[in-house]
Design goal:
The chain is of the alpha/beta class and 339 residues long. The protein is 51% helix and 13% strand. A seven-stranded mixed beta sheet has the order 1-4-3-2-6-5-7, with no helix packed on it.
């Protein structure tokens, strides 16, 4: 049977099939962790009374070691259904699951205590009797702030004063307790504005810390990387410092061993320098005269393979024809341009 080449097939059908294949490949790459043949682990589910700030993507730990991550947090009736996936970890049929606080900024993780004699069935949800949620201090502060704002502290103080007056003829212990409640109510009433401001500030602080959680995490991670790099380079830094110390020791020994040879040389160099400084004026004069001398030598020998010179006064004047000596005496002729 002959298979037709692609170029002979319907281009529309080829394009549709190609797009479907690309879509399937992209979906498989996006959900690679969920595919069974890629070793994504086993998925379990558990019921909680509240999520306590747990979110998808948070870590799953056993004995403090990360073994997986949370894959979903959803409301299921009056309960919260949490699904999580673990890899290379054993979960027993009596295992307990709890939401624990990871950082002071409120980040959470799922802590699993692997108990039981048989493996946990992935299709059976872990009940609330085997799950726990942490006490959220941030939510408690928020609730306290709202509650304080709704309390009529002045009316509360008046109520306690009425109770104290009612029990004024009671035994000393009861009377003292009523007086204490009255004093407490007056204190709360007087500090109402300060307490409200304090709780509002606490709420704002917790919200700010929550907003800056990622920045704090990056800072801490960078600090850990720096310390880790210093730890990794500890031996190299130690060798560098040790080598510097050994080099200083060797240089000290070299100077001490050659002190007898170096000292006379340095002394002689000092004397030469002193002589040069003493005759500095003479050296300057020699150098200035040497310039003129070198220029004349250059003019004499620089025009070709001969000496270019001017001689005057060799023959007596009475031996020369009349008018031969120059009028200016024995002065060299004036140089013209190009000659």
């Amino acid at each position: 049977m002959r298979i037709r080449p692609v170029r002979e097939r319907n281009p529309v059908a080829v394009g549709v099939i190609g797009l479907l294949v690309l879509a399937l490949v992209g979906f498989a790459a996006y959900r690679a962790d969920s595919l069974p043949f890629t070793g994504g682990g086993t998925t379990y589910s558990a019921d909680f009374t509240e999520s306590a700030g747990l979110t998808e993507g948070d870590e799953v730990r056993i004995a403090g070691v990360k073994v997986g991550k949370v894959t979903g947090v959803a409301l299921d009736g009056a309960k919260v259904k949490v699904t999580f996936r673990v890899k290379d970890a054993w979960i027993g049929n009596a295992s307990t699951v709890g939401i624990a606080v990871k950082t002071l900024l409120g980040e959470k993780y799922l802590a699993v205590d692997p108990l039981g004699e048989a493996p946990q069935d992935p299709h059976t949800r872990i009940t609330t009797s085997r799950t726990t949620s942490p006490y959220d201090v941030t939510q408690a502060f928020d609730g306290l702030g709202e509650t304080i704002g709704e309390i009529d502290t002045r009316q509360l103080a008046k109520s306690f004063e009425t109770i104290s007056a009612t029990f004024k003829d009671s035994p000393p212990n009861v009377k003292s307790a009523a007086n204490g409640l009255s004093a407490l109510s007056r204190t709360v009433s007087e500090r109402d504005a300060q307490l409200a401001a304090l709780l509002r500030s606490s709420k704002q602080l917790t919200r700010t810390l929550a907003d800056k959680k990622s920045s704090f995490e990056i800072l801490l991670k960078d600090g850990n990387l720096l310390l880790g790099e210093i730890q990794a380079r500890r031996d190299a830094i130690h060798l560098l410092l040790t080598g510097t110390r050994d080099l200083g020791t060797q240089l000290t020994g070299l100077v001490e061993d050659n002190d007898k040879q170096l000292k006379p040389t340095l002394d002689a160099l000092g004397r030469v320098t002193a002589v040069l400084l003493k005759n500095r004026k003479s050296l300057d004069q020699v150098l200035s005269l040497a310039g003129s001398y070198n220029r004349l030598v250059g003019n004499t020998l620089g025009n070709g393979r001969w000496f270019d010179n001017y001689v005057c006064g060799v023959v007596p004047r009475n031996y020369l024809p009349a008018g031969t000596p120059p009028a200016t005496g024995c002065m060299p002729p004036r140089q013209e341009g190009g000659h």
